[in-house]
Amino acid sequence: MSEAPWSLHLLSEVLAAFTVQSPNALRDVVSRVAEAVDAEITAIVRHGSFLLCVGLDEHDKPSLAAAAEERAPELVLGGVVLHLYWAPLEEGDAMVVGRFREQYSLEERALLRAMARSIQLSTQVLAAVKAEQEALRAEKEAKNLAIREATIDALTGLPNRRCLLAYLADRLAHPSGRSAQLGLLFVDLDRFKHINDVYGHGTGDAYLQAIGQALAQWRDQDTFVARLAGDEFVVVAGVDQPELLNELAERILKCLDQPWLIGGRTLHYSASIGLAVADPGDRPQDLLDKADLAMYSIKQAGPGRYACFEPSMQQQARRKAELEAEIRQALRLGEFTTFFQPIVSAVHSGVVGFEGLARWRHPHRGLVDPDGFIEVAEEAGLLRELDARILRDGCFSLAGWNSVQQGFSPRLSINLSAASLVDPALVGRVTKVLAESGFDGRNLLLEVTETSLVTDVERAHRNIVDLNRLGVRLAVDDFGTGYSSLRYLRQFPVGMLKIDRSFVSGLGHDHDDEVIVETIIRMAASLGIQVVAEGVETASQQTILRQLGCDYLQGYLLGRPGNCSTSEGVFERSELRLLQLGGDAF
Amino acid sequence: MSVSAPAVNPTQFATDRWIKVGSSTNPEAELAVQESLDPILERGQPKLAIIFCSPAFNLAEVSKRVKAAVGDGEVIGCSTAGELVRNLPMNGGLLIWALGGDGFAVTTGVGLGDPHAGLRDAAQEAARCLNQLERKEHTLLFLLADGLCGDQMEVVRGAYDVSGANVPLMGGCAGDDMALQSTQQIHSGELLTHAVVAAAITSNAPMAIGIAHGWEPLSEAMLVTRSGGTTLESLDDRPALDVYLDAYDAPAEVREHPEAFFDFAHTRPIGIARRNRIEIRYVYGADFEKRSLTIFAEVPQGAMAYLMQGSSTSVLNATSDVCAQAEEALGGQPAQGFMLLECVARKSLLSKEGLLQESLRLPAVREGVTVGGFYTYGEIARTEGSGGLHNQTVVALALA
Prior knowledge:
The complex is a heterodimer.
Chain A: H1 6-16, H2 25-36, E1 41-46, E2 49-54, H3 61-69, E3 74-77, E4 80-88, E5 94-99, H4 106-151, H5 161-173, E6 181-189, H6 192-199, H7 201-216, E7 223-229, E8 232-239, H8 243-256, E9 260-262, E10 265-267, E11 271-277, H9 284-301, E12 306-308, H10 311-333, E13 336-345, E14 351-362, E15 366-368, H11 374-379, H12 383-400, H13 402-405, E16 411-415, H14 418-421, H15 426-437, E17 444-449, H16 450-453, H17 457-469, E18 473-479, H18 486-491, E19 494-499, H19 501-504, H20 511-527, E20 530-533, H21 539-548, E21 552-553, H22 564-581
Chain B: E1 18-24, H1 29-43, E2 48-53, H2 59-70, E3 74-79, E4 83-85, E5 88-90, E6 94-100, E7 104-112, H3 120-127, E8 138-145, H4 153-163, E9 169-173, E10 185-187, E11 190-192, E12 195-203, E13 207-212, E14 216-217, E15 222-228, E16 231-235, E17 238-239, H5 240-247, H6 252-256, H7 258-265, E18 270-273, E19 278-281, E20 283-287, E21 292-295, E22 304-309, H8 312-328, E23 337-343, H9 344-347, H10 352-361, E24 370-376, E25 379-382, E26 389-390, E27 394-399
Parallel strand pairs in B: 2-3, 8-9, 23-24
Antiparallel strand pairs in B: 1-6, 2-6, 3-10, 4-5, 4-24, 7-12, 8-12, 9-25, 10-11, 13-27, 14-22, 15-16, 15-22, 16-17, 16-21, 18-19, 18-22, 20-21, 23-27, 25-26
Helix pairs in contact in B: 1-2, 3-4, 8-10
C-alpha cells in the first residue's frame, strides 16, 4: 500500500472546513489546524490580542501574549516546554501553534504557513460573503418588517384586518382537516368613544392594548384573534359544535366586563359580540358582515350582550339602509317640516310658547313622526342637518307671526341632538339664524337630553356658555330618565327642566310618580330653574301639577302639535287671554 | 500484543484514595441498585459514583436511588450498549464505578444541546465544572455524551475549549443497546437526553489514559471528496456507499437491506489518517438512495480515509495493550483501578468465548485492582494534541 503525504491531505482537510453556512467557521478551522498537527494550542493573534484561542485557559493567555511580541519559539506551561511556531499573517498578525514534546519539522512548518495563508485568504472571502449575506439578511428583515407592519396592528400587536381577511380566506378555502365549523365573533367595545372623550386618546389606546392582550389569551392552533379597527376586535374559532361559540362569547364578555386599571384609572366598560358561523360559499367579507350585523343588532338592545346572526337581520339592515337613503333625499328635497306643540302656563292655561317638532312629509307614507326616522338619522349622522332645519324653520315661523308685532313673542323650544350640542359650528349657526330671522334669542330654548350633556362635557359646556351669551337658554328634556345628576344642573346654565311624560302619566294613581314629580319641582325651584311637565293628557294631571307648583304644561290636553298656520291661530287666540291676564315670564 | 502485569503488591495502595465497582443483573431496579452499591458503600461514601446502566432499566429510578444513597457524593452516568465487569461482559445490567477518599476531589457539570446545534456548546458548559475544582497535583475531565446527537467530535472540541492543554480528557458516548434511537445521560439524579455530563476529577496521584483499536487498513488511501456532519457522501469522487460495498465485496443482501448492512458494517470501520496514526470511525448506517454512509462522528471533507479490517485476535490484543499503556503512564505507581470504555462494534468481532477472554485480559487479573466500564457509541481520550474522539476503539483510564 502506498504512503500518501500526510501534510497535503491535512491542508485539504482544513481548507475544506471553511463554510459560509456555519457562524463558527473560523473557530472550527482553527480547531482542525490544532488537530491536524497534534498541537495543544492554536491561536490567531491580531494586534497583540487573541482573535481566537484553542487550548489555553485564561490564566495562561497572558504568557502567550507576552511570547507573541518577540515570536518566542517556546513557552513553559505548567513546567513543561511548549514548542511554538508562528505562521505569519498580514500586518504583523500571526497564527501560532504550540505543541508539547516535539518541535515542528520543516514539513510541518511549511504546512502551517500554507494553512495560515489559506486561512487569511479564506477569512477575507468569508468576510466578503458575510457582508453580502448581511446585506441580504437586512433586506430580508426589511421585507419581513414591511410584511409585519402591513399585517400587524401596531397598537395591540394583534393581526390586523388585512391579515384577518387572508386568514379567513385560507380557513374558508380549506375547511377540512380542522374543526367542523368556523365561527367568527365580532367584538365591539361599548361606549369606547366615551373613554376617548373623557379620559383622552392615550388612555383609550392603553385600554385597547389591555383588551387586545386579554383577547390574545384565546389564541391557539384553532383560534385566531385580530383587531379590525378602532374598538372592534375579531375572534375566529373552529369548533365541532356551534354551541361552543356561544360559550366562547359568554366567556369573552365576562372577561372584558371587569374593572381595568389603566394609567392609574379604573375603567369598567362592557363589550357587545356578534356571532356568525360560516356557511358554504361564504367569502371572508360575508362572514365578517354577518357577525357585524349580529353585533349591531344586539348593541341596540343594550350593552354587554351577544347575538348570533340570523337572516332576518340582513333584511332589517337592508330596510335601514333604504330608509337612510330616503332620509337623505328628504333632506335634499325639503320634505321635513316643523310642527309646533303649545306650552301653556300651569297657572292660567295661556299659551306661552311652542316646542318645534320635526315631521316628515313622506311622498307615499304621509306624515311621519320622529319615531319613524330619528334613530336611523342619528346613526347616519344626519341629525345635525335636521336640527339646523327645524331651528331655522321654527325661528323664521315664530318671528313672522302677527302677534310678535303686537309686542308678544312666543317662546320656542327646539330639540338639539348630542351631535349638534358638541358641534363647533353650532353657535355660529344659531347666531346666523337669529340674525336672519329676527327671532329674539332670549325666547329660544334648546332642549337637550341628560345623556347628550355628558357625551363631550368640555365642548358641550363651551357651546352652552356661548349660546347663553346670545340669551339662548338650555332646557333639559326627559328629565329623570337619564343620569339625573344634580352636578350638571350646577355645571351648565340650565334654564328649564322638562319632566318626562312617564312620570306625568302616573299622576293621580301612582304615588311614587307623584313623589318624583314633586321632588323635581321643589329641587328646580330651589335652584331657580323653571319646570315644564310633558305629556299632560288629563284634567286630573293638570290639576295635580298645578297644585305641586309646576310652572308650565305641555301635552295633548293642551294642544296637539300642528303646522305653522294652525299653531299661529292657537297662539293668537291665547295671546288675547294673556293680555287680559297680564302676561307670563316663560 | 500481550503485556504482562507489573509486579505490584496491593498492600502498597494508598489509603486516602479508593476505587470500587459494583454491578448487578437483577432486573429489579431497586435490587440492582442495592447490589451494585453494596461493595462501594462498604468501602465508604464515594466522592463520585458513575452509573453505567442498560436502557432496559428505568434509568430515572436508578439515578434517583443512587443519588439518594451516596448523599453528598457526585453522581453522573449514562445508558449503555453493554457493561464491562471483571470476568463477565454484561448485557442488560447495571454497573456503578465509584471513587472516594480524601486523595480525590470531584466536581460535576452538565450541558444541554440539540441535534441541530450539536454538542459543542453543551460540552463547554459541562466542562466548566473544572473551574469550580480545587485542583490537586493531577486533574482529568471525564465526559459522558449523547452518542446520537450530531457529530461526536464536537464534544471533544467543546470540552477542550474549556479544559485547555493541561487537562486530559476521557469519556464515552452513551448507548441504547444498539436500538440507535435515543440515549440518556444522568446528572445528580436527573435524567437527560441530548446532553453532555462531566466530572472534573483531581487527585494527589497520577491518572493516565491508554488508547488502542487493533484495526488495520484494508484499502489504499482515499480522499474524502464530500462529507458533512455525520454523513460521508463520496470517496475519490465516487458515492461512498458504492466504494464501501465494492471494497469489502459485500454480498447482495447487504447491498439491499439496511439491517443486513448494519450488521455488516459493525466490523468494517473507516480510518482517518492523522499525523502519526489512524483514527477509527464507526459506520452505522447507509442511505441507499443517496448512496452515502452514516458515521457516528465526522469524517472530514478533504481528509485521507481508509477502509479498515480487524480480527478477534487484534481486538483482544488491543484490550491488553490499552490497560498496559495506561498503567505504564502512571509513572511507576500501581493502578488501583481502571475505567474501560470500549466501542460496542468491537463486540461483534468476538464470540461469546472471545468476550470472556477479553474480560479475563482486563487488569482485574491482578487481585485488588478494580475494573469496570461500558460498551459505548464513541470513545473520548485526549492525552496530547487537541483531538481525541475515537470509534471502534478501546480506551482505558488508570488511576493510581
